[in-house]
Amino acid sequence: MTNRFSGLIDASNRFLGLALDLAKNRLELVSIELREETTFLLSMFIWGCLAVVLTLMTLVLVTFTVVFLLDASLRPIALIVATALYAFSATLILIVMKYKLKNRKPPFAATAAELAKDRQCLQDAPPH
Questions:
Q1: In a domain, 21, yes or no
Q2: Would you tell me how many other CB atoms lie within 10 Å of the CB of residue 58?
Q3: Cβ distance 86 to 62 under 8 Å?
Q4: Does residue 106 lie within any of the structural domains?
Q5: Is residue 17 part of a domain?
Q6: What DSSP string runs through 68-90?
Q7: What is the number of other CB atoms lying within 10 angstroms of the CB of residue 95?
Q8: Taking the chain, what is the end-to-end CA distance rounded to the nearest angstrom?
């Protein structure tokens, strides 16, 4: 009788050890993906700030162009060129941001995939 209980306790200890190792691995994966998400969000914040700065530069440059150009015949050309340059830059940055947001993997995809594999392994395991 004691031999059965010691075998059961040994099996329980092995199972608990494996479960803790599995949980540790999954938490490490979540930690890595959380760092990746933080890096991605920071880069999107920087791209967004750059777009805002260029948009503001567009407005400021248009105002200064109107005020400070001396030759009246050059006013329309300078306004068009300056406005087009900064508007194009801001539009290009927004297109890059949209592309990056659209084509990224869902957050924690690797963790979800590993958890699904774990669940499948546990379901497929033969009962003892």
A1: no
A2: 19
A3: no
A4: yes
A5: no
A6: H---TTTHHHHHHHHHHHHHHHH
A7: 10
A8: 19
